[in-house]
Amino acid sequence: MNLLIKNRQTGKTTQLIHISEATRYPIVVPFEAQKKHIIELANQMGCLIPMPLIIREMKERGINVKTPILFDNVEYILSDALQQYLGTEVFCATMTDTLKEYYTNYGVHTKE
Hints:
112 residues, mainly alpha, 3-stranded parallel β-sheet
């Protein structure tokens, strides 16, 4: 899993929309409001992306995505997912930004 780690309001969702347009991978979000925001933002940017999905929709409708997904705001579900998986509360965790590593190792330059 690659990570886009930046402060709030610094272009993470915008970058994810560009990645979605380039890869055709759908963006998955925790909430309906985020889905609407991504659709509006992509339209404003003139980007053509697959329809964003909500976790609840995927579970309730049994939607099985055949491609990798892009996830916006993973922090909203990561704690719950780990608690269910491990059966205990995770108080603190660390992560490595492997996307930044990939960009550095392969000399990839992004728009931002």
